[in-house]
Amino acid sequence: MKSLPSVEEARARMLAAVSALQSEAIPLTQARGRILAQDVTSWRDQPPFAASAMDGYAVRNADLPATLTLIGESHAGAGFKGAVGPGQCVRILTGAPLPDGADRVVIQEDVERDGDAIRAPAPEGGDNIRPRGVDFKADQLLVPKGSRIDAVALALAAATGAAELAVMRKPRVAVFATGDELAQLGATPGPDQIFDSGGPGITALCESWGANAFNVRAAEDDVDVIAQAARDAMENADILVVIGGASVGDRDLAKPAFQKLGLELLVDKVAVRPGKPVWFGKTTQGLVLGLPGNPASGLVCAHLFLRPVLNAMRGMPPGPPMQRARLRSAVAANGPREHYLRSGFELDAQGQAWATPFEAQDSSLLSVFSKAKCLVRLMPKAEAMAEGDLAEILPLDRDFG
């Protein structure tokens, strides 16, 4: 029997078939959470002038201590246009440009004022001046491409005057949940039906991972009907994610349907638990990823395979790296497939990470997944592990959109 690819090998095959999407320019105010497609570089110094760090008076060090004559004011956005000469000073506020000739700001609490006569003490401490370019210099790289734009990165780009940013286009994902057994939300289910939970869950994950996702349905479990629904959906999608219908039963119609779209299978199954039926391929319409129909299994495999694919489309690394945590309970020896255990997670008072694998790991149990904060990875044929042993974990992003 042909051996199945490992998670790492299957993921590598998928990523080899994925190309980064094109970039698009969007208003800076709409860029939070997007992936930067071009470096943000400054074109001038920030601040572009020496500025006062305090409210006070701009003076010449050489004059102090002295009684100086006030000759004007410098405000933020409206600097003094003249120069400070011997025996003179200028009233200055925080952030205002330092007038020519001045090399110190005496804070207002340290002077005595009588009309335009300002008594300033001898120099002491710092000069209370922010040098030109103290924040950043012209032609300095501020935010490298590939960065996820958060509030700080957005503010930094705004400080350069950028009204628009070039970002990676969001992947468009068609989420296709198959099966006559699935009742739509709001409908009255038949006696042999369950509600579709995998479709909404995967759609929400796609959205939380920076994609635009939409749901697809076929009118019935029929190869031709499924193929046509997929063909129509893929006209507006970068990838179609089909949930269910990928096992070996008589009613598992996903692969036969996609054969009608010229399916070239790059991954047929994966040596992973849960998720052995995962598959991936190319069609004449585009890429398709098959996830298991059991909702918890589908969510696990979405983290293992779908997130890296979407990240690749956005020009990002595959996903969060594996971490390590100590086990709160013992784990039995593993079988021949890589196994991902839904688990709780916590940090103790000393900052040590702890993972608690749940006893119930059936791939259909969505309620168990709802309590999980990480997946404990067991490699094939791994030996039993005791409480307190270090294990590899994959953190879960619990923001489902």
Explained architecture:
The protein has 401 residues and is α/β, with parallel strands linked by helices. It has 7 helices and 26 strands. The protein has a 6-stranded mixed sheet, with no helix packed on it. The chain has a 6-stranded mixed sheet with strand order 16-13-17-21-20-18, with helices on both faces. A 5-stranded mixed β-barrel has the order 22-24-23-25-26.
Compact description:
With 401 residues, the chain is of the alpha/beta class. The protein has seven helices and 26 strands. The radius of gyration is 31 Å and the shape is elongated.
| Counted beta strands | 26
Query: What's the overall geometry?
Result: elongated
Treating each run of at least 4 consecutive H or I residues as one helix, how many helices?
7
Main beta-sheet annotation: 6 strands, mixed
Keywords:
elongated, 401 residues, 6-stranded mixed sheet
Show the helix and strand layout.
Blueprint: H1 7-16, E1 23-27, E2 40-41, E3 51-52, E4 56-59, E5 66-74, E6 88-92, E7 104-107, E8 112-114, E9 117-120, E10 129-130, E11 141-143, H2 151-159, E12 164-168, E13 172-177, E14 182-183, E15 194-195, H3 198-208, E16 212-216, H4 223-234, E17 239-243, H5 254-259, E18 264-267, E19 272-273, E20 279-282, E21 287-291, H6 295-313, E22 323-327, E23 338-347, E24 353-357, H7 366-369, E25 374-378, E26 390-395
Parallel strand pairs: 5-6, 13-16, 13-17, 14-15, 17-21, 19-23, 22-24
Antiparallel strand pairs: 1-12, 2-11, 3-10, 4-6, 4-7, 5-9, 8-9, 18-20, 20-21, 22-26, 23-24, 23-25, 25-26
